[in-house]
Amino acid sequence: FGSKMVVQKKQVSPWENYMEFPDPLHWAAAKGDLLAVRQFVRGSDGAPEIEADALNKDGKTPLHYAAIFNQLKVIEYILDPFPHGAGCMVDMSDTNFLTPLFMAVEQGRAEAVQLLAKRWANVLQTNLAGSTPLHAACMLGQARVVEHLLSTSAVISASDDSTIRVTGLEYSEGWLKLERSRLLVRQSEDHNVVRGMQIIQDRIITGSTDGSIQ
Fold it and tell me: Nearest-CA neighbor of 181 among 145, 154, 146?
């Protein structure tokens, strides 16, 4: 009829971008798409309502993936109390007893580690191997993560042979166990691993329990 046909493109809501995946909320959390995460959790704007602490086939929650990919705003929303946030627990473990804090440590996500620790994540949680997040950070050479972990708690403990326990009354015990940990470090040429253990050594020598790195 001589007139141009105008085709209006339907605007896609953020949550719709993740519906092709088996765990859309987990994907949205991993991508840091806060709006989509909110839509799924609230069941708003036509999105299917999904529990904020839903488990996927690996036993991981959306918070695990937000921690892995350092998505700080998503972490805050998931942990903030209702109605401002989803009100989830910070220490949900997967099938390997790994919490979101552990996942952030393994990936070297220092900012996520700091945020989770401030939100009272258990820094003494052990995995199936009996290691704490601090052990994992040292052995993986995550020096910045080590510093954050030490700055958030006066107690450093674990259940395996490389245990280091530091409190005002127990730092001498930690000094003895430090020698055992050094044997592990000597097998590595990774400067960051050595740096991580050096921080711990300095902490024990000074007997610092005020949460600061001496």
Answer: 146
Structure tokens at 20: 């092709």
Instruction: Give the pLDDT mean for 125-154.
Output: 80
DSSP class per residue in the chain: --SPPPPPPPPPPGGGGGTTSSSHHHHHHHHT-HHHHHHHHHT-TTPPP--TT---TTS--HHHHHHHTT-HHHHHHHHSPTTTS----TT---TTS--HHHHHHHTT-HHHHHHHHHTT--TT---TTS--HHHHHHHTT-HHHHHHHHHH-S----SSTT----STTTHHHHHHHHHHHHHHHHT---HHHHHHHHHHHHHHHHT--SS---
Put simply, whether the predicted model's pTM sits higher than 0.85 gets the answer: no
Identify whether 2 is part of a domain: no
Residue 8 lies in a domain: no
Q: How far is CA 19 from the centre of its chain?
A: 25
Judge if 114 and 162 occupy the same domain: no
More confident residue, 146 or 40: 40
Within a domain: 17:
no
Which band of pLDDT confidence, cut at 50, 70 and 90, is reported for residue 25? very high
